[in-house]
């Protein structure tokens, strides 16, 4: 660059003026500034920010002593307990990559992820011992297994060589043996079901994790020392980044094992919870809970809703309860939330119905996500802001994944044209806000979880009586969406809806099983391709005629 006087002036990047971005720095600062503030509440247990730092360092040093280092994968199957939050700091502190796994998956899928991610260590809650044990049986090379033994949970059994507390006991609370030298370094691995084939491993970097943590605070307007209730699974996009956000916020995490309306509302009252997140199913539970369970909440509560477009009746019911809802949108590949329906001041004058319509849109890009657009996927040109022309939502910027692990073809396809292709179809409203109209992929989002329709169809095809199978999403008052299967049987063979559902339960995780099965002839094109759009129309017609 040129100096003000026109002479050549080389200004170098040094340790004085450049430090790699990592969310680990949030924990270090908060433990220094607010050491005695409560970081975690879980039942009768209280963990201060100083203690959280000490325990995270113990995890890091114990992992390092076990031979775990930079780039190694540490997998976790656990509930929303303090251990999950500690691992979000302890694992990357030794340079390793945190891989939180969905507790609702079946053994075959878990074993694939453990093998594909090359997990060196698996930390698992005893509640999930049966499914995890079956997954481990499918592996030729098994990771070190460490059990989380939660006194508040009755049942399950041990799988590991040691339990979590024994493992930490050998760690050093003052350990500072590893430092992040490159913000592009991987911090987390998250698997997404996608639409075809095996799950894809989405790799996050420290820079993106740092920035999404701050953007969560900025775009939600979170004040310092928020009280955050963990209704959102920590295994999902690292709790959408809020595991790290709470450290930047110096807030308090209220943990809970089970997500139930009465438990949530009780926790909100008892701990004066200010913020919570979740898929539409979580918000619907609260919106339609019995009136007696809602009584006694007299402070302001903010809810963040994502995973699928929010049903207007749910937003309306929560607004009437005094819970302020903000719609966010994103995907695993963009660190979870990457767009927000940022509320405008003039919306305050709108009636409830019009306000809900505005707030149910997916909105505008997050503060630190550099690009969000609705583009024609063929021309890569922006669609007009007319609220009618459909294009594909695309992202680019610091909150975009490094790519898919061991899958360069899928990465290249996803990044074609210099943008990440979401696969979601939307319009751009006259005010510049994005609104989803359809999905170009046949992924069903049920309770915030992606269900691969092809996986369901493959399971149905293993039944000897099934000739053709097609699975589409149907509206579900509890889960937002649920799978509906359309089946054409082999001539001369009979099978009932109950039989086919039970068959799927032997092949799939429970949440993936179709809630409804329709048996009959399937509509096809002249080349024999099943016309799913007609099945959706048929389904909607039957719903509205009931």
From TrEMBL:
Ranges for domain AMP-dependent synthetase/ligase: 29-405
Positions of the AMP-binding enzyme C-terminal domain: 455-529
Domain of life: Bacteria
Regions annotated as coiled coil: none
Pfam families: AMP-binding, AMP-binding_C
Keywords: Fatty acid metabolism, Ligase, Lipid metabolism
Entry similarity comment: Belongs to the ATP-dependent AMP-binding enzyme family.
Name this polypeptide is given: Acyl-CoA synthetase
């Amino acid at each position: 660059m040129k100096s003000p006087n026109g002479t050549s002036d080389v200004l170098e990047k040094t340790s004085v003026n450049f430090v790699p971005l990592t969310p680990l720095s949030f924990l270090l600062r908060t433990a220094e500034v607010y050491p005695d503030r409560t970081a975690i509440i879980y039942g009768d247990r209280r963990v201060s920010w100083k203690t959280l730092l000490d325990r995270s360092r113990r995890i890091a040093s114990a992992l390092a002593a076990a031979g775990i280092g930079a780039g190694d994968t540490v997998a976790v199957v656990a509930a929303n307990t303090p251990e999950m939050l500690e691992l979000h700091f302890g694992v990357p502190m030794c340079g390793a990559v945190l891989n939180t796994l969905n507790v609702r998956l079946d053994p075959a899928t878990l074993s694939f992820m453990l093998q594909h991610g090359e997990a060196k260590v698996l930390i698992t809650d005893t509640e999930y011992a049966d499914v995890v044990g079956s997954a481990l049986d499918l592996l030729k090379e098994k990771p070190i297994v460490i059990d989380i033994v939660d006194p508040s949970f009755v049942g399950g059994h041990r799988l590991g060589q040691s339990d979590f507390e024994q493992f930490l006991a050998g760690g050093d609370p003052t350990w500072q043996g590893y430092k992040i030298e490159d913000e592009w370094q991987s911090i987390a691995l998250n698997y997404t079901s996608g639409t075809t084939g095996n799950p894809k491993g989405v790799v996050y970097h420290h820079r993106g994790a740092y920035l999404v943590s701050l953007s969560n605070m900025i775009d939600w307007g979170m004040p310092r020392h928020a009280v955050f209730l963990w209704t959102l699974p920590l295994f999902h996009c690292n709790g959408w980044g809020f595991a790290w956000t709470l450290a930047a916020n110096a807030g308090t995490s209220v943990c809970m094992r089970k997500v139930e309306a009465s438990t949530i509302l009780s926790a909100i009252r008892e701990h004066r919870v200010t913020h919570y997140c979740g898929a539409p199913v979580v918000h619907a539970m609260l919106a339609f809970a019995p009136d007696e369970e809602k009584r006694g909440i007299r402070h302001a509560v903010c809810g963040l809703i994502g995973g699928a477009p929010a049903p207007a009746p749910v937003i309306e019911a929560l607004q009437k309860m005094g819970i302020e809802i903000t719609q966010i949108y994103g995907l695993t590949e963009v660190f979870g939330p990457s767009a927000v329906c940022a509320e405008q001041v003039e919306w305050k004058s709108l009636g409830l119905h019009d306000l809900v319509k505005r707030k149910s849109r997916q909105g505008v890009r997050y503060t630190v996500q550099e690009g969000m657009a609705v583009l024609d996927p063929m021309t890569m040109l922006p669609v007009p802001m007319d609220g009618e022309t459909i294009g594909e939502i695309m992202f680019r910027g610091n909150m975009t994944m490094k790519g898919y692990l061991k899958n360069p073809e899928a990465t290249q396809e996803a990044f074609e044209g210099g943008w990440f292709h979401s696969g979601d179809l939307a319009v751009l409203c006259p005010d510049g806000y994005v609104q989803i109209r359809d999905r170009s992929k046949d992924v069903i989002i049920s309770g915030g979880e992606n269900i691969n329709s092809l996986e369901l169809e493959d399971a149905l095809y293993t039944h000897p009586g099934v000739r053709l199978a097609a699975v589409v999403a149907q509206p579900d008052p509890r889960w937002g969406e649920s799978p509906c299967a359309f089946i054409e049987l082999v001539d001369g063979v009979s099978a009932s809806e109950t039989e086919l559902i039970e068959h799927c339960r032997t092949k799939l995780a429970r949440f993936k099983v179709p809630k409804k099965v329709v048996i009959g002839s399937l509509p096809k094109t002249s080349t024999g391709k099943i016309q799913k759009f007609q099945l959706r129309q048929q389904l909607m017609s039957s719903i509205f005629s009931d």
